């Protein structure tokens, strides 16, 4: 409680400081400058900006003014701006736009003067064009080759560089075949066909023809007994096996049994075939998938193999296999806590209780979904490992003196959130971990909580639970939680999982606002509530978003008889998906969650459970054990989801 009171006092102090800061008057004046520029009233903007040259957002006036004049090629003004604000977000943005304008006007020498290494393919190719046009040819062919050697088509901006590459001695059938292979593996058969038209030797043309047949009719190639036993042929046979296994696992298994007896496949090739068959079998739920996953040699085990081994081992209760697969640390980037938890479960099922308990004791010290599951099994309290970040006033002041950080704050205070986030992300990418942590404390003090959360994630600093799990929109959330008969901690956990409290959040799928609701779902839910739904824009209003979001979540919870895991999965992926993911018999929630095939939904459900426990702690409520709310998931044909509990 003392920590809570202190946090409130600090927040109030920070808010008061911002309210009375030195830029308050200039901020109001500069807002009029930006409004004038956005209305194309540039003369008025130039009049209004007089006296604001020292205001942190003054570069935005200059940027907007320069951007509209780029077609006039104001080289000196651009150079001065880039020099004055070097490495800033605006300078990098202007440089990109300036380079595109120079390319359009074919000012290649000027392009080279302003160019800096880029990650975008179009600008990298334009840089090659500029070097060719100005005669700066050293290294051009090697750089063109690096861009050319890919399995997908490249943009038109690359044409000039590629024409030069095609005309050079560097280009030969061997290089063409390398890219044909990449194109075929990437499923770009039309690109492969275009490249094949440039092959010179008949033998290589025949090799492409075999690739093409393998793409269209893989079984035909695998059954062909007239092929030479050479590296190129074996490579195409493996490709044909991959194509066939995607849809016809049994046929692919028989074909491999036959073809592997007729050709001298090496260890790498045989391992690749084993991985291909195992992944295909796992995806198609083939009866032999466990044995096939086990048969993948270690040198071909990757993240996909390890994830499928976990998922299918859990699904099939293949405890002996799972115990063997997890006896060493994973070699990929799979979730290590998940790995350790399911190893403990496998060992427990195999009667190796002491080993299982030792793993669980270590896991129970972790602040994580799997740590909480482990604590439940050992009847221990959850380890929150709360350790607030201590940032001194001098550290915060030093960071606030960074121009980009100050610009982000000013944009935030002007409610220009999109631009503010861009400035923040740019500056954060240039900081070390300690400065990212200090930045998080600054953002939290300002009330910019989504950036505080983002900053700690960027720093991989997870112990300050007050910053990571703020209590926002509490009155609204508590109101609708009470109306729907829901726990406030659950609602806050859903909001934190969905949007990190970003009221204007919009997902790639079009979900909007705090609880990330799709407009169609929102419209249907609002109609059921008798609420007016003028347009999707109302979902950016916190009260209406939470009103609709809580109603929809309660609908999902009722649909699944209070099963929180199923309701969370349906909220994230839709009820139709949840219906598909139910099994032929009752299954424990912990197994069902880790068998969800969508990585995003699987992680989402785990987060929702984990975050609920954290928010109970934040709200100083009695913490609910996960095991008491993780109800079993009933069989597909069960008339009620409560049947498993009887």
Give an overview of the whole structure.
It is a single chain. It is flat, with a radius of gyration of 30 Å. It starts with a helix and ends in a 17-residue tail after the last helix. α21 (336-349) runs antiparallel to α22. It has helices spanning 2-19, 24-38, 42-48, 58-67, 75-84, 89-104, 108-114, 121-134, 140-148, 159-166, 173-185, 189-196, 202-216, 218-223, 231-245, 249-262, 267-283, 289-294, 303-315, 319-325, 336-349, 353-363, 369-378, 393-400, 403-413, 417-428, 433-446, 449-459, 465-468, 474-484, 488-499, 519-529, 542-559, 564-573, 575-581, 589-595, 599-618, 626-629. With 646 residues, it is mainly α. Residues 1-17 have low confidence and may be disordered. It has 38 helices and no strands.
Q: How far do the termini sit from each other?
A: 41 Å
Topology, number of strands: 0
Strand proportion: under 5%
What is the overall pLDDT average? Answer: 94
- Total DSSP helices: 38
What does the main sheet amount to? none
- Unreliable spans are 1-17
Radius of gyration: 30 Å
Overall geometry comes to flat
Please give the share of residues in helix.
55-70%
Q: Please identify the structural class as seen in this structure.
A: mainly alpha
